Amino acid sequence: MEIEIEMNFFWIALALFFLGYFINDGLRNFKNPKKGSKYQYFINERDLHLLF
Predict the structure, then answer these.
(1) So what's the pLDDT on residue 37?
(2) How far apart are CA 5 and CA 15, in angstroms?
(3) Cβ neighbours for 43, distance < 8 A, ≥ 6 positions apart
(4) Choice between 3 and 44, residue whose per-residue pLDDT is larger
(5) pTM beyond 0.70, yes or no
(6) Beta strands in 1-52 (DSSP E)
(7) Are 51 and 43 within 8 A, CB to CB?
(8) CA distance linking residue 44 with residue 47, whole number of Å
(9) CA-based nearest residue to 18, from 30, 26, 8
């Protein structure tokens, strides 16, 4: 019983750690986003049926 509770706290702590890491990384780049876009071009709505 005690080991199960400790493991649950471990997973909760690990999830909170990664949550804080990714939020911090996003806030650090909020004012200075990376230049450019990973999308080379935008697709018009009328052309979507050709791609899907």
Answers:
(1) 59
(2) 16
(3) 51
(4) 44
(5) no
(6) none
(7) yes
(8) 5
(9) 26
Q: What is the pLDDT of residues 5-43, one digit of tens each?
A: 788 899 999 999 999 998 887 777 777 766 665 666 777
Residue with tokens 């200075």: 32
> Which single residue is written with the structure tokens 């004012």?
31
Cβ contacts of 27-36, under 8 Å, gap ≥ 24: none
Distance CA 2, CA 11 (A): 15
DSSP state string for the chain: -HHHHHHHHHHHHHHHHHHHHHHHHHHHTTSSPPSS-S-S-PPPGGGHHHH-
